[in-house]
Amino acid sequence: MLEASIDAFFHLFSPGPLLAMLLVLPVALFSGLMPGGGLPVSVVVLSLAVHLDPWVAITIVVFHMAASDITEPIPAILFGVPGARSAQATVLDGYPMAQQGLAGVALGASYTTTIVGGVIGAIALLLALPVSRQLLEWFGSAEFFLLTLMGVMAVAVVSAGAFVKGILTAAFGIAIAMVGYADLGGNVRAAMGFDFYLWDGFGLVPVVVGLFALPEAIALVVGDTTIARARLDTLLREAKADVWRGMRQAWNHKWLMARSSLIGVFVGIMPGVGGSAAHWIAYAQARQTEPGGTETFGKGDVRGVIASDAANNSVDGGVLIPTVVFGIPGSGGMAIVLAILILTGITPGPLMLTQHLDLTVSMVYTIAFANLIVVPIMLAFAPTLCRIAVIPPNILAPVVVGIVSLAALAASGSLGDLGAVLAFGLLGVFMKRYGWPRPPILIAVALADILERFLWISVSNYGWGMLLRPQFLVILAFMIAVTLFSLRAQRGARQAMMSMTEGEESGPVAEGGAPRREAAAAVEGAAPGRGSAATAEGGALGQGSVAAAGDAAAGAREGLDDAVARGAAAESPAAGDKDGDGPLKRRFTLEVAGEAVLLLAVGAFFLYMFIDSFSYPEGADLMPRLAVLVGTPFLLIRAWTLLSGTPEKRIEEGDIMDTGFILGDDPKTESQRFVRIFGFTALMYVAIWLIGVHVALPGMLFLYLMYYGKAGWLASAGIALAFLALIVGFYDVALHIVWPEAPFGLWPTG
């Protein structure tokens, strides 16, 4: 082993692999900012693999994978847009911190945690190689199914305070993922007449962009506010100090970093499971085990960022283990690594631990080197990036829409993906507005195919006997215990929050992490569908609590109160009309009517899929029916609560770990803002279809920035030209993206 380690070091830092890493570094940094931006680069390398030395080809792909993952917390924290896999859980606390003017703290903590997680993952991979084979042989398909299900069931924790809606949206997400061609039955499921587009189902990138990016951009314009709503002057003045403060906060929670990193490694070892599930499981365990976590996670708690990013980066080491030891790709990126190994004449499997041990160890070094190089670069630019949080909404929102639209279109080159972005964007707006958690849909869509495959293999191999396997029973008992503990902790936290709001005492955050009464009042003001409470500058952020002292509490109450009646009643006596007349009555009527539409849409989709499943071959009908049968009871429970419960029950207490709209007192103006930004997006997509992306996207951005953004013609033209350079230089030249052909294309092709 020592000899292989020395050989790997000298091979990796020889001129060929070293030059390859330096050349791919800027591409990796940039593509990590785009949802789904990493895979096309790997595909380009795959197409050249037969002409490259194995050391160069493998180094490029592994380095690019690790480096691009490191950059993904940036859009998650600053824009509330999770990556295609990474940083999905980071958005839950990172984005609320940015809204509170603490983007620098979040970025500093994120990148400190990232480098620690990456190094721990690399070391764990090195240590695990000799024993990993014995560990994996203990698990069969039934255990892999249950571990994948554990990742989906993490929504029971992620959707704290909205358990019913969390399970319902997870089932809805699995049903959405069942649309398209079924490998098990060889048929197309629930295509709704759009077989020409939905043959492969909904892509993950359009789902991410539609559910998260578009609603966040719309929310900025509708609320007519910057991302940061507090500490604006302080943010600009102390951005660098905030980054250093975030780094210190991360080191104050070194055991949380270590624990979450090891979870990432362990879950990453499971073939096909780790990439999407690891950071959710780490986030869930941190929320349940950290002091005060059930009250503050999802509202801007730095520990949520630490737990998510530690596991997110350490998983890179874990997913390599099944890839090189068994030839089973641990993730989509690892499938590319596997293909490159085969194309270069190297057979994955036991030989990677004997004849090619030096190449295997070099992957460990590559992951560690990527972290040591990229993290300092990102930390150096973090203070500058923080300034994005104070850009006016009518300038930032269209730029964000343009970036994520490019990512969605480039993922498959299909115009149908833009239509999917609009559809999921509208769904995301409704979910965000009416307090439905969106993360459960994302994790369900990401893991549904793996879940279905393992379920079918388990049923075929073991039948119901899989329920009696000792390994299965151990994992099942652990899952049940965690779920029960989670529900009990959520109930206790909610009762504590409600009891604290009854008093009138105010004060800073308690040392143990539990906020005092005034802090609880500010947090309670951030009810589902509204946003997150502010974390006070100088508060005990490292202890995981949300402070509401002084101006921070006032900012939270003024900036985050919107359509939920409890918050409105707390702020305005007029809104609390005992007779139910006036704004309060209208507000609840709007809440009930809007959510009823959402419930009807989900119910109609469930009914359609259940009826359609009777035409599926055996095996292809199992998971769709299971999703419908699990989701329907929770749908009925939510409908009953909405229609018959008290206002407080209709708008479920607790935080759903999602960010909501900031609504004011002028619905007409807010409606006009919504139509403006959503209409701009739809018109831009129509223009892309008619005249092509090269002209339509920069042109539409220029018009919006000039007319609505008031950016001036010089700044508007500069941004438009920057987008044209991005399309040509990055997507056309670097990634060789083939764009859809436009009927009236104005840009030369070929």
List the helices and strands and how they pair.
Elements: H1 2-12, H2 15-31, H3 39-48, H4 54-71, H5 73-79, H6 90-99, H7 103-137, H8 141-153, H9 155-158, H10 163-177, E1 180-182, E2 187-189, H11 195-198, H12 204-223, H13 232-237, H14 239-252, H15 254-269, H16 274-289, H17 293-296, H18 302-326, H19 332-343, H20 357-386, H21 393-412, H22 416-433, H23 439-462, H24 470-501, H25 517-524, H26 551-560, H27 565-571, H28 583-612, H29 622-644, H30 647-650, H31 667-691, H32 693-707, H33 713-734
Antiparallel strand pairs: 1-2
Helix pairs in contact: 1-20, 2-4, 3-4, 3-19, 4-19, 4-20, 5-6, 5-7, 6-7, 6-18, 7-14, 7-15, 7-18, 7-20, 8-16, 8-23, 8-24, 10-23, 10-29, 12-21, 12-22, 12-31, 14-20, 15-16, 15-18, 16-18, 18-19, 18-20, 21-32, 21-33, 24-25, 25-26, 28-29, 31-32, 32-33
Explain what the structure shows.
- This protein is an all-alpha fold.
- Helices cover 70% and strands 1% of the residues.
- The chain has 33 helices and 2 strands.
- Strand 1 and strand 2 form a beta hairpin.
- Helix 5 packs across helix 6, helix 7 crosses helix 15 and helix 10 crosses helix 23.
- The radius of gyration is 25 Å and the shape is globular.
- The termini are far apart.
